[in-house]
Design a protein that fits this description.
The chain is α/β, with parallel strands linked by helices and about 400 residues long. It contains ten helices and twelve strands. The strands form two sheets. Strands 3-4-6-5-7-8-9-12-11-10 form a ten-stranded mixed sheet, with helices on both faces. Helix 8 links the parallel strand 8 and strand 9. The longest helix has 16 residues. It starts with a helix and ends in a 6-residue tail after the last helix.
């Protein structure tokens, strides 16, 4: 990235904050036109969210079955939504958020009898966050795994739970799910602040809040401390990568869906550039098992970011052997799956590249926003990957 581009983006940010959206739009379009084709391949007025919807009726991902079978029942996709201009994106940034547009979510899925989906609050010296906790009816006296799910921009815990279908998996296999909520007071679009330096490290900002609420759940519920996992979508995926890197003593594995590598940005201009063109990220201090899922047609977060998450994680491990295969989901979406396996044959890193998929949770449910119509099923694959890893 050239110094000229960084200076131009800084100027565009100043114009945006001053309310001069037309000038900022023209400047960014000029900067993108001047960049080499390898750095930016998305039209400046291209939509930031590119996804349609499907129903996933049956996911089987038991802990003792490392290859769950998916049985989707396709439903017609709704009409495509109008594309959004760069000026609308800048207006969003000007009020403190990151670019995104949310489709309508149908609402929460009814709870099974005996299950609970409760709202809790964690507070510490870094602030406070509400979160929702799913407690399955199929609970047992034994300690249960816990999965932390970080929603994307404009989403909520209920929306994200409905779209990912993770609660249904929790009911089937007996684990807890926590959904932290990002309030508009922290970010106007409810994005996790992965691009702010104060929210990128241990014992500070949002990572400390998320770790703190996990410890609250551990205190109040029968959580297996060796089987705690974190995953997220988009800004939530970027934040999940940050939190897992900051707390390898707490999380046994991480799932990054349509997200970015740790250290991808330190301010809004860098965040805009990373989302559009990709970022290398920074070296990771600890090796944490990681599964990455990204659509090759993602126009919101460039798929180079998913590849960077994989590359940075690979650098933290030693002696892994790579295997690769191609496949087609039951919904007809082709994909490439890379697995990096240790000497015991356990996958430590997985990379799912979904051909033609946009910025949406793969295999998601139509009850939630930002779900992909044709799989493969991200929730089932993440669960399969997670349950192969425990600490200690």
């Amino acid at each position: 990235m050239t110094n000229h581009f960084h200076l131009g983006m800084s100027k565009a940010t100043e114009l945006t904050k001053a309310g001069k959206l037309a000038e900022a739009t023209a400047l960014i379009q000029s900067l993108l036109r001047d960049k080499p084709q390898t750095e930016a391949t998305v039209d400046p007025d291209e939509t930031f969210i590119d996804g349609t919807f499907t129903r996933l009726d049956d996911v089987r991902a038991a802990a003792d079955d490392p290859a769950p079978t998916l049985t989707p029942a396709p439903t017609p996709a709704p009409p495509s939504r109008p594309r959004s201009s760069l000026r609308e994106t800048l207006r969003s940034i000007a009020v403190g958020g990151m670019p995104t547009h949310a489709p309508f979510a149908k609402g929460p899925v009814p709870l099974p009898e005996g299950a609970e989906f409760i709202t809790m609050t964690h507070a510490n010296r870094h602030g406070q966050r509400d979160y929702k906790l799913y407690i399955p009816a199929t609970r047992t006296p034994a300690r249960m795994p816990l999965i932390v799910m970080l929603h994307g921009c404009t989403q909520s815990p209920d929306d994200f739970a409905a779209g990912t279908g993770m609660n249904a998996l929790a009911e089937r296999h007996g684990f807890l799910v926590a959904y932290p909520a990002q309030p508009t007071g922290a970010n106007a679009n409810k994005c996790w602040n992965w691009f702010k330096p104060e929210d990128q490290g241990r014992d500070g900002g949002e990572p400390a809040l998320i770790a703190g609420l996990v410890r609250d759940v551990m205190r109040d519920h029968p959580v297996d401390p060796a089987r705690i996992y974190i995953a997220g979508l988009s800004a939530g995926g970027a934040a999940a990568a940050i939190v897992a890197a900051a707390y390898p003593d707490l999380f046994s594995a991480v799932g990054v869906h349509s997200g970015l590598p740790v250290g991808a940005a330190n301010d809004i201009p860098q965040a805009f550039s990373a989302m559009r063109s990709g970022a290398d990220g920074v070296a990771l201090p600890h090796a944490v098992p990681t599964i990455v899922i990204h659509g090759t047609a993602d126009a919101t977060v460039h798929p180079r970011n998913g590849a960077a998450v994989v590359e940075r994680t690979l650098q933290a491990f030693d002696g892994l052997r790579a295997t690769r295969r191609k496949g087609v989901s039951p919904g007809g979406r082709s994909y490439r799956h890379s697995s990096h396996i240790n000497a015991d044959g356990k996958p430590m890193i997985e990379h799912w590249e979904i051909d033609g998929a946009g910025h949406a949770w793969a295999g998601g449910q139509p009850e939630g926003s930002f779900t992909d119509p044709s799989g493969p099923d991200a929730s089932g694959e993440m669960l399969r990957f997670f349950l192969q890893h425990s600490r200690g």
